[in-house]
Design goal:
Helix content: 10-25%
Catalytic activity: 4-hydroxy-4-methyl-2-oxoglutarate = 2 pyruvate; oxaloacetate + H(+) = pyruvate + CO2
EC number: 4.1.1.112, 4.1.3.17
Enzyme class: lyase
Number of helices: 4
Distance between the termini: 8 Å
CATH superfamily: Ribonuclease E inhibitor RraA/RraA-like
Number of strands: 14
Order of helices and strands: HEEEHEEHEEHEEEEEEE
Strand content: 25-35%
Cofactor: a divalent metal cation
Pfam family, one: RraA-like
């Protein structure tokens, strides 16, 4: 799967998440249905979702664009792998980037920060979110590789 080929063939039904993402992990690409989370500098709901079966889904987190604290580290990335999540897209920062780079996962994030997040339980899963010029809804599909992150309302491949 290549996002460049997908956009060439399906430009009318794809949207580019236009953010300066950094890629982490050893997986070359991901494709899967979206599960959404909206939170700010608190990863409690992220942990809760990653503790459940991913079934090949991609966790898309609107962290409000904060790069002050990390919403994901190596322990949560390992939990994602263990529970069958295809990958993560975060409008936020991560930490433990060297360790995550060694994992068979693909994570998109805005930046890194060594500071861990709060654990106060703030956040909601399963809501429509908006970032990077795109509306993201649970059940939409994400296609991502080295060239970018694309969203479709339906499965394309």
């Amino acid at each position: 799967m290549k996002t460049a080929d997908l956009i060439d063939d399906h430009a009318d039904v794809l949207s580019l998440v236009h953010l300066p993402f950094r890629r982490f992990g050893s997986r070359a690409h991901i494709a899967g249905p979206i599960q959404t989370i909206k939170c700010f500098e608190d990863n409690s709901v992220v942990r809760k979702e990653l503790e459940s079966p991913g079934n090949g889904r991609v966790l898309v987190v609107d962290g409000g664009g904060s790069t002050r604290v990390a919403l994901l580290g190596d322990m949560l990335a390992g939990l994602a792998l263990k529970n069958g999540w295809a990958g993560l897209v975060l409008n936020a920062a991560i930490r433990d980037s060297v360790e995550i780079d060694q994992m068979d996962i693909l994570v998109y994030a805005l930046a890194t920060s060594p500071i861990k997040s709060a654990k106060d339980g703030w956040g909601k899963a399963g809501e429509d979110i908006h970032f990077g010029g795109v509306e993201l809804r649970p059940g939409d599909w994400v296609y991502a590789d080295a060239d970018g992150v694309l969203i479709s309302e339906r499965r394309l491949i």
